[in-house]
């Protein structure tokens, strides 16, 4: 299975009064991981937007397992869990420096036309990207 890894240094501003990373920051880290995965596969999300398309989140699930605190460096591991005609599901693990899992997550996305938000197949607008996702999806690549 192909996955991308991106290190993130936890900033003070990402923590709450308890010194623990605030839960919403994990979503930002997932976006960083997704962008890194796309780039590692040879594509650019910004180009998709320039071409008139967006890929909004349609579903999201996060399981928090252990706390992350200021000063740590974490790794966001991201992969394509599944890819179909209209939906792509990304998988994530957020890992402490020692490799223990701090959180796991999945996010589901669709590609839509920017002007009307109608779903469109990635295969139709970017066949190479679609083929790569099909190749590397979990259990396939």
UniProtKB/TrEMBL annotation:
It is an enzyme of class 3 (hydrolase). This is 4-hydroxybenzoyl-CoA thioesterase. It comes from the Bacteria. Its EC number is 3.-.-.-. Keywords: Hydrolase. InterPro entries: 4-hydroxybenzoyl-CoA_TE (IPR050563), HotDog_dom_sf (IPR029069), YbgC/YbaW (IPR006684). The keyword Magnesium does not apply. Pfam families: 4HBT_2 (PF13279). The keyword Hydrolase applies. One of its GO terms (molecular function) is fatty acyl-CoA hydrolase activity. It comes from Sporosarcina newyorkensis 2681. Belongs to the 4-hydroxybenzoyl-CoA thioesterase family.
């Amino acid at each position: 299975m192909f996955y991308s890894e991106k290190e993130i240094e936890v900033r003070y501003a990402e923590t709450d009064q308890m010194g623990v990373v605030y839960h919403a920051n994990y979503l930002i880290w997932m976006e960083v991981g997704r962008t890194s995965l796309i780039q590692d596969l040879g594509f650019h999300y910004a180009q998709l937007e320039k071409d008139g398309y967006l890929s909004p989140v349609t579903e999201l699930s996060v399981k928090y397992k252990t706390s992350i605190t200021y000063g740590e460096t974490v790794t966001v591991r991201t992969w394509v869990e599944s890819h179909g005609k209209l939906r792509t599901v990304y998988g994530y693990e957020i890992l402490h420096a020692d490799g223990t899992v701090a959180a796991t997550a999945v996010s589901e996305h669709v590609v839509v036309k920017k002007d009307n938000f109608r779903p469109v197949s990635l295969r139709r607008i970017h066949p190479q990207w679609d083929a790569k996702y099909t190749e590397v999806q979990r259990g396939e690549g």
